[in-house]
Amino acid sequence: MMLPFWAFLLAHLFSRLTGRRYPWQSFFVPACLGIMIHILGDLVTAYGLMLFSPFSTQRFSLPLVFVIDPWFTAIILAGLVLSTIFPAKRVYAVVSLIDVVAYVSFLWMLHKEAMQAGKAHAAEKMLDQQAVSVLPQPLSPFNQMVIILDGTELHVARINLRRNTLLKCTDSGNPLCYMAAAYRPLAMASWRSYRLHDNRSPEYAALSHEAWQQPILTPFRQFAQFPVLDGIDHTAQHVCVWFIDLRFQFPGLPPSFRYGVCREEGNAPWYLQRQRGAFWID
């Protein structure tokens, strides 16, 4: 919503930097396109963006590209570098743009393929097929996480759409291999259930319900798309109920955006704690 305003300011800035040799109108459309490319780049990740900010904080996302995608980045960088070396030849920029669109279209096909797999599993388990979501995953565009929402329970499978056999890691100290092996062939998918509330006992169920509804957790509740309980630390002195968003949990890595609603025993007030994850977004 603020795109024209920011482009207007940038156009005037660029005009000043050139000593007003070019009027600001010459820079306005390129500035609009530059900002729009950034917006579209965020829109196709699982993180998404607040498209109508500052009038709305609602997030929008078309999760096709993992937030760190080497192929997506390489295509753009190649176009930028070649266009810098050969500024008079538009062909490099045009080819780069075509390649990016083709790659995103390819990711859209993989997204639909994973969605069909999720809907097939939902139908088999008599779950709502409209409650299926798919998130891109690291290391390979074929790695996908399928999520089926069932009330406050999530059924999750990490799959690789092209692998036919399980990946075995001979080097136990290789974290990348361990992460890649977590994405199993579709025919061997392992479905795991995550819950928002602890059902081990009535006490823990009530505790997780109370912690989740605390006002201090409101920003996280608004931000998280797939919130789940990540554990309860309970000692004689204090208790912490931890929540994460499955969008930012990856095999072998500490999850990003992990929040704990904590308090001392008794009627002490709740307070918020946060643990950092493995990615730069923390």
Primary descriptors:
single chain, 282 residues, alpha+beta, five-stranded mixed sheet, four-stranded antiparallel sheet, 7 helices, 9 strands, globular
Describe the structure in brief.
The chain is 38% helix and 20% strand. It has 282 residues and is an alpha+beta fold. Among the domains are: 112-195, no CATH class; 202-275, no CATH class.
* Count of alpha and pi helical runs: 7
- What is the makeup of the main sheet? 5 strands, mixed
Coarse structural class: alpha+beta
User: What is the succession of H and E elements?
Assistant: HHHHEEEHEEHHEEEE
What low-confidence regions span 5 or more consecutive residues with pLDDT below 50?
none
Portion of residues within helices: 25-40%
* Radius of gyration using CA atoms only: 23 Å
Distance, first to last CA: 26 Å
By DSSP, the count of extended strands is 9
Architecture overview:
It is a single chain. With 282 residues, this protein is an alpha+beta fold. The protein contains seven helices and nine strands. Among the domains are: 84 residues, no CATH class; 74 residues, no CATH class. 38% of the residues lie in helices and 20% in strands. Strands 1, 2, 3, 4 and 5 form a five-stranded mixed sheet that branches. Helix 5 links the parallel strand 3 and strand 4. Helix 1 crosses helix 2 and helix 3 runs antiparallel to helix 4. The longest helix has 34 residues. The protein is globular. The model has no long low-confidence stretch (mean pLDDT 91).
